[in-house]
């Protein structure tokens, strides 16, 4: 795969940082544990070569455009919280403000070069890739709205390090997962910063607006690279959130494997997200209170623009009429593009570790969670 990427780009230099061990561990786990079907094997190989090519091109671009390294990333905003708690919707709304910059799906898939050259071609290619995903997983669009020109989770910017939880989401790779969780993720966040510099050269704005629930797990590493970061944390009943994300992971993994265990997915989700919450709560307690804005999931669903307005008030940012108007346009567009309702049975995942979230529930005034009986849930995709 490394040789194939080099031949395709006619480049040899992958830039600073080590990636061979994480890539090797990922591929070994996929080979021995993931039970990939034909589509899974094809997708893994294609994705890895694409990521390696991107890494080669990013390294080349930093040599060709020395001004990339001079880009300053100041006070980036990270939207966090349990997955399926409205982080995507809030991200889309804030990204609608012209003062803000968010990584777009096409930029993450094809970040080179850091100029307008081939922009339209790269957008079309990203749209084709997403169309293939919709064909392979037709129910996915009812879970999570996608689009080549929509804001994208920024953990994808770290994929060239091969230290990212996106791989664990797509494939059942427990040995890679255990290894990844024990690593110092500062090199991955340093690569994240370099990727933002790269994208910022093409288009800058007053601040970066970024989003990924997984940042909670890696908060110490994140703050080591972005000590002036600001956070929005969205709060939802933990068991509802974990059941919903377990459903999403099950849908994705069934594209790539014919042997998917929803109970194990639920068990892993309980373990990971309870630890992620504990890590982030410990870290946020060391930050100035004004650096973190709290929102409730039900308030985001009830009035998304009012929730966004609350963020501006907390951080003392001016909210222009143009920005608020654009947020309403974004909201209307996403509502019109929602293709159905995400339905799942929480009992399907046997989430019996609710007491892991007791401290969080007490702090943020959720009823003490208890193991759910058979409960069918429904969510509108735009509300995630």
Could you walk me through the main structural features you see in this protein, from its secondary elements to its overall organization?
The chain has helices spanning 2-9, 20-32, 38-64, 87-95, 105-109, 119-136, 165-170, 174-181, 186-202, 219-225, 238-256, 262-284, 297-302, 304-315, 321-337, 358-363; strands at 77-81, 100-101, 207-211, 230-235, 292-296, 341-345, 376-380. The model is unreliable at 370-375 and 380-384 (pLDDT under 50). The protein is of the alpha/beta class. The protein starts with a helix and ends with a strand. Helix 2 runs antiparallel to helix 8, helix 9 (186-202) crosses helix 10 (219-225) and helix 11 packs across helix 12 (262-284). Strands 2-3-1-4-5 form a five-stranded parallel beta sheet. It contains 16 helices and seven strands.
Strand content: 5-15%
Enumerate the spans where pLDDT stays under 50 for 5 or more consecutive residues. 370-375, 380-384
> What is the residue-mean pLDDT, rounded to a whole number?
91
**Per the principal axes of the C-alpha atoms, what is the gross shape?**
globular
* Order of strands across the main sheet: 2-3-1-4-5
SSE order, one letter for each helix or strand: HHHEHEHHHHHEHEHHEHHHEHE
Query: Helix coverage percent of residues?
Result: 40-55%
**Helical element count?**
16
Strand-pairing-aware structural class: alpha/beta
Compute the CA-based radius of gyration: 20 Å
Spatial gap, N to C terminus: 35 Å
The oligomeric state of the chains shown is: single chain
Query: How many E strands?
Result: 7
The largest pleated sheet is described as: 5 strands, parallel
